[in-house]
Write a structure and sequence with these properties.
alpha/beta; about 280 residues; binds pantoate; 3-stranded antiparallel beta sheet
Length: about 280
């Protein structure tokens, strides 16, 4: 496994491999967990597997959140080694910074909803880094998890618009035995609060069942919000939305899901469930 920090080395690596092999890219911000491993494992072993590890400051609207983001490079490298990754791209801030131009970006309307409304600049930061990674690696496949569903739609938009040969592979959210969606942010939550974290998916699943049995959406949503409140879990949004456009819905249709962002121990967690 090679670890590369510079763009020059990336270019020669790609030049050497590209003619014979397909390239699979797994963009990450490190602190790799089983969710990331699932992305890595999903890439064909015949392809060159590249994992990028870069905590992208541009996508953090809160500087403290950026500074306290868990950084575990040594562990990440051994996770990659154990999972047959061929190349790690771990650039330093400056390598990336000078290559991101500041043209006006075409962010689709759906990036203004949910996390877009609550985290100004977040999706622009994601857009800039991901487009840059697609440009330098020219991957054939790129892997992203459905937990960040809104991000996934943005990435599909970038691929469809600018990289028509690139296939985006979406991977189901990986959950632990308590159905908690794996996230690097969980490492910031105290063990005493894990009972609360479990509630997120339990409440989403109960909402799904109620909606499927025909209960009114507004009533279901209100009673779930009360449940979160009673458990001292501040909710940022809890929405029923179209899986295609992310437009808000007031009743279920054939392609929709419930999306949530909430805070536990002041840590912002997101999750979603398809209906
Ligand atoms: O999902 C993430 O970890 C990040 O948003 C990504 C896609 C690696 C861009 O920094």
């Amino acid at each position: 496994m090679k670890v590369i920090n510079s763009l020059k080395d990336i270019r020669s690596f790609i030049k050497n491999h590209k003619p014979n092999k397909k390239i699979s890219l797994i963009p990450t911000m490190g602190n790799l967990h089983s969710g990331h491993v699932e992305l890595i494992k999903s890439a064909p072993s015949s392809s060159v597997k590249i994992v990028s590890i870069y905590v992208n400051e541009l996508q953090f609207n809160d500087r403290n959140d950026y500074l306290s983001y868990p950084r575990t490079l040594e562990d990440d490298l051994s996770v990659c080694e154990d999972n047959n990754v061929d190349l790690i791209f771990n650039p330093d801030h400056l390598v990336i910074g000078e290559h991101l131009d500041s043209n006006k970006y075409d962010l689709p309307k759906f990036t203004t909803y949910m996390c877009g409304a609550k985290r100004p600049g977040h999706f622009l930061g994601v857009y800039r880094i991901v487009k840059f990674l697609f440009e330098i690696f020219e991957p054939n496949y790129a892997y992203f998890g459905k937990k960040d569903f809104q991000q996934l739609l943005l990435i599909k938009y970038i691929a469809n618009t600018y990289f028509p040969k690139l296939k985006i592979i979406d991977i189901d959210t990986v959950r632990n035995c308590n159905n908690v969606a794996l996230s690097s942010r969980l490492s910031k939550i105290s063990s005493g609060s894990f009972g609360k974290v479990k509630l997120i998916f339990q409440i989403l699943q109960a909402m799904k069942k109620k909606l499927q049995s025909g209960l009114d959406y507004n009533f279901t949503r209100e009673s779930s919000l009360i449940e979160f409140k009673n458990n001292n879990i501040p909710v940022e949004y809890l929405d029923l939305r179209s899986l295609d456009t992310l437009k808000e819905l007031v009743k279920v249709n054939s392609k929709c899901g419930i999306f949530i962002a909430c805070y536990i121990d002041n840590v912002r967690l997101i999750d979603n469930i398809e209906i």
